[in-house]
Amino acid sequence: MGIKGTCFVCDECGELSYRWLGRCPGCGEYGSMRERKEDSEGSLRERVEDLPQPQPIFARGMEESRISTGMDELDRVLGGGAVLGSLVLLGGEPGTGKSTLLLQAASRWAAQGIRVLLVSGEESAAQVGSRATRLGISHPELLLLCESDLEVLERVVRKVKPEIMIVDSLQTVWLPGVDSPPGGVSQMRESVFRLQRMAKENGMAVFLVGHVTKEGVVAGPKLVEHMVDCVLFFEGDRFDGLRILRAVKNRFGSSSEVGIFEMTDEGLKEVSDPSHRFVAHRKSPVAGTASAVVVEGKRPLAVEVQALVAPTCLPTPKRVSSGVDPKRLAVNVAVLERRVGIRLADRDIYVGLTGGLRVCEPSLDLAVCLAVASSYLDKPLSLGTIVLGEVSLTGEVHRVSRMSDRIREAERLGYSRIILPRSFLEETKGRGLSKGLELMGVEDVKEALRAVGLLRSS
Ligand code: TYD
Ligand code: MG
């Protein structure tokens, strides 16, 4: 028995409906449902023997085969290495180092004897070659093809049989039969379909480089993100070496992992102990600094907040932040004014994070408050102090996520004292927390300022 008739399929996300809808229930796009005649005799399997057999979840041989890159920072974000038969999209702004990252990964795979095909539609063989030479990469298993016609590529893949294929970039490849220019929506959609088929049929892992628009999404329909197994973003500032690789979607692993790299003259270097990079190593304390531990992906990282409070000559004083959320900075400054009584209305305030990291989470609130107060009063916090906590509009200090992980990281780095919300200490009664650290619970910002010696105890 089969269902015959008409159905409607969404152009953007592939959602199926048996009646026409103005708005796709899957992705919310308007006018994207297209009619498709369904002749299901051929597609639905008629006989019971033809039906696929469901298997127990933990059946042997069901786990995917992975190829590790040997670069821990990349493997972790991928969920343990490249999965054969999968499609990975690597997005990022131009110049962040997407081509460099994949070239370095390719060289690691090739060094293990894995055949890698690097398809460049963007750069000439000479350009890729000179980058490879500069990075000291030359392996017989690392093959380069400068081609953008996917039908030609399909034939090459059948002949060469690579285990890993890198396509740089998705916006430059095209299919001759599709009536839209390379980089166009239908061209990209059809290209991804074709690449997906190539990945499955040849059992290879395919990495696609995708350019990012100003809005921060991979250019082209959302569909591309829906179609691939894994979406990674490479973020970084052109003027700073720090690069963060984030998994946004991962069918084969966690989507909250991050990898940290640094762009150097010899290519990307893994930063395996980032906390050491983000905190300044000082011999004596400096006013206007406070350290905290933030969580990026799943990793706790120690960071230093630096603040400079200076008299203003402007009617509206400046509030400049780099790496710290400007809205949170405004709230923290208002709390210092109203709840603590520090007059900042005639001061310019500059706040930044060392190391080029950008953090939006509220765990930095207390550190921002203390750094600003410390600069205003020109008194430093003692060395070896970490401050953790979200500051509410009432000036109270609240706990943040993953407190224990943050405390452990502070201890590992040799800090001696942590200022944290008293409610957290009361809840846990110090159970399972570190013995080598002094944990000081505070109720509100004022108390925190007293605890670090910025305000005199009343
Ligand atoms: P690239 O990988 O071409 O970026 P994308 O493919 O994302 O556009 O590299 C971008 C920048 O990195 C380029 O401006 C030069 C710099 N770079 C280095 O600083 N060191 C290096 O070893 C390499 C290869 C590139
Ligand atoms: Mg590139």
Structure description:
The chain has 458 residues and is of the alpha/beta class. The relative contact order is 0.09. It has 3 domains: 4-39; 65-272, Rossmann fold (3-Layer(aba) Sandwich), CATH 3.40.50; 277-451, Ribosomal Protein S5, domain 2 (2-Layer Sandwich). The chain has 13 helices and 23 strands. Helix 5 runs parallel beside helix 6 (185-202) and helix 9 crosses helix 10. A hairpin with a 2-residue loop joins strand 13 (258-264) and strand 14. The model has no long low-confidence stretch (mean pLDDT 88). Strands 8-7-9-10-6-11-12-13-14 form a 9-stranded mixed beta sheet, with helices on both faces. It has helices at residues 40-43, 72-78, 98-111, 125-134, 150-160, 185-202, 222-227, 274-278, 326-340, 365-377, 403-412, 422-428, 445-451, and strands spanning 4-10, 16-17, 33-39, 66-67, 82-83, 87-92, 116-120, 142-145, 164-168, 205-211, 230-236, 242-250, 258-264, 267-270, 289-296, 299-311, 319-322, 347-353, 385-387, 390-391, 397-398, 417-421, 438-442. Bound molecules: thymidine-5'-diphosphate and magnesium ion.
